[in-house]
Design brief:
single chain, alpha+beta, three-stranded antiparallel beta sheet, binds ligand A2H, leucine--tRNA ligase
């Protein structure tokens, strides 16, 4: 943990169709017409064009928290407490949980992914999601995040083991950012550092650091409204665009 607060962008991925277990757990617990969103926290809002799925920790506990009369967020209790005091919920300081969910209940849920070339993506498991960081929900951008690329590769390889449909993990990975090395930096680094699975923690950490530095300082947007602009410049613009559209909000911790 650093000394400075981490400024995240929390996205709103609207639930379009619940996985059966989550559907059951939510039976009769939400008001008529309410929308529920999974809210991943990201440091790379400019990469959201490349979302291919949304990760939850299969063993983590989540709640469905009331953000306003008609909107509920799936996040950890820890994140809900932080949000309640950041003016994110309609009622300042009030934490109201409509239901409990375990990550594994949510897997297979279909959500809308704002800005993505894949407007509808599935919720998939990732064991390395930490309960102690962000919202406990992570949006997957395999083009630019080595962790995400390693995980979707693993999920596609062992779909039966993970209890998912292979095609949920095999969405096309589009180039989002051009750097001097590649326009698919995460897959490039995973290959170069011979990362075979999400368990190769040491190499993944190295890949993550390389990808983050090169992407941020030398990257140029290949897509979207800020195509051709440097990532450094485009990042706050894409963030504002998402927030203005009601598809994201600022979250810090
Ligand atoms: B990032 P920091 Cl394209 N557990 O978003 C594990 N990882 C988490 C998490 C949690 N509870 N909450 C957020 N994260 C991930 C995009 C992205 C991210 C890209 C490239 C790098 C990258 C798409 N995934 O992060 O420890 C989220 O993944 C590398 C740093 O607070 C979030 O941003 O610095 C990032 O880690 C926050 O990590």
């Amino acid at each position: 943990e650093g000394v400075l607060p981490q400024e995240y962008t929390a996205l709103k991925l609207k639930v379009l169709e619940w996985a059966p277990k989550a559907e059951e757990a939510l039976q009769g617990k939400l008001p008529e017409g309410a929308s529920v969103y999974l809210c991943p926290a990201t440091l790379r809002p400019e990469t959201m064009y490349g979302q291919t799925c949304c990760f939850v920790g299969p063993n983590l506990k989540y709640g469905v928290f009331k953000a306003s009369e008609k909107e509920y967020f799936v996040i950890t209790e820890r994140a809900a407490k932080n949000m309640a005091y950041q003016g994110i919920f309609a009622q300042e300081g009030v934490i109201e949980k409509a239901a409990d969910l375990v990550g594994s209940d949510i897997i297979g849920t279909l959500v809308n992914a704002p800005l993505s070339f894949h407007p509808q993506v599935r919720v998939l498991p990732m064991d390395t999601v930490l309960a102690t960081k962000g919202t406990g929900v992570v949006t997957s951008v395999p083009s630019d995040s080595p962790d995400d690329f390693a995980m979707v590769t693993e999920l596609a390889k062992k779909a039966d083991f993970y209890g998912i449909k292979k095609e949920w993990a095999e969405l096309e990975i589009f180039p989002i950012i051009q750097t001097p090395t590649s326009d698919l930096l995460a897959p490039y680094l995973v290959k170069k550092l011979k990362i075979a699975s999400p368990k190769d923690a040491k190499q993944l950490l190295e890949a993550k650091e390389l990808a983050y530095k090169e992407g941020f300082y030398q990257g140029v947007m290949k897509v979207g409204d800020y195509k051709g602009e440097k990532v450094e410049i485009a990042k706050p613009k894409v963030r504002e665009q998402l927030i203005k559209a009601g598809d994201a909000f600022a979250y810090s911790e």
